Structures are given as structure tokens and as C-alpha cells.
């Protein structure tokens, strides 16, 4: 089984990413379930705006799209900015939108029988809102969202320290992240054994 984690931080490499630090906890838990994990830091790529799988010369999204299709598990990891998902996360969701018109050999949307989860960091409140927005978009595209397939970290409303600057809340976020990994893996295995059929015509 394979998983893809798309880190939607606004910080290009090699800057330290708080979102990546929390994602590493979930990645470790997934590997503990014998899942192979690939990661993408979207801001490092030339991902053009649009809702097609390939937006032309220089567009680096098609390679990410291939990674999505080769994975049973997708995790979107985003910081909270202004109480919302990052602009990079929104760009990723818009490009995933193309999958709505893509089907497999059984006429199923290609997102069917894949599970997805959400990870959020930020030094302000709004994590549940970000989780809801991203989860809703992924469900629209066709991904299955298991119960409690998310984790987050923040220290309440208003400005404050970042994830890597303060140890408070780390234990809870890690525990929730391990549960998230377990729920994603077991839901993916259940779908592999009993896949969703194509939508009725």
C-alpha cells in the first residue's frame, strides 16, 4: 500500500516547515503499518493555476497526479492562514478537481476507492474549519474520508508560537495523528477488499 503526503506550506525548501514536522509523525505511523510513503512540497513545484490535469509546457502537476493515482492514501497537509487553508492547498485542490472527469476501466471516477485525510498546523484557531474545507473538497472529488482522518496543532486564537517553537499540545497532536494513520490504512484495506462500484448511470 502507498500513501502520498502533499505538504502545502508556503515555505519553499530548504526553509523549516512546521507542517512537515507534524506530517512526519503521521508518516512514521503509516510506515508502521507497512505503508510506503511519498511526499511532495507543492510550493517547490511549478503548479500552474487551472482545473486540468496538464496545463501545458512547464507545468509540474502531471507528475504529482501520477503519484496520486499510484497511491491508495492521500494526505493534504496545510498551515492555517487567515483561518483558511493556504493558497497552495487551494491550488492543489483545484488541480485535483480534474479527476472528476477521469475514470478507470470500470467507469469509476479515479478517486474512488482511495482514502484521504487532512493535517493542519498554525498558531491561530481555525483548524477545524480548514479540515472541513479540505475534507469536503476531497469528498466531492470522490475520495473516501474515514472518521477522524485528521490531526492538527495550534495554541488557540490569535498570534503565537509555531509548532516547532513550543512543545505544548504535541502529545495530543501526535496521538491523534497516529489514530488518523490507522483509520486511513484500515479504511483503504476495506475498500481494496470491497471496492465502490461505478455510480449508477
From TrEMBL:
Pfam families: FMN_red
Domain NADPH-dependent FMN reductase-like: 1-148
Domain of life: Bacteria
Segments forming a coiled coil: none
Protein name from the UniProt record: Flavodoxin family protein
Organism, as annotated: Streptomyces musisoli
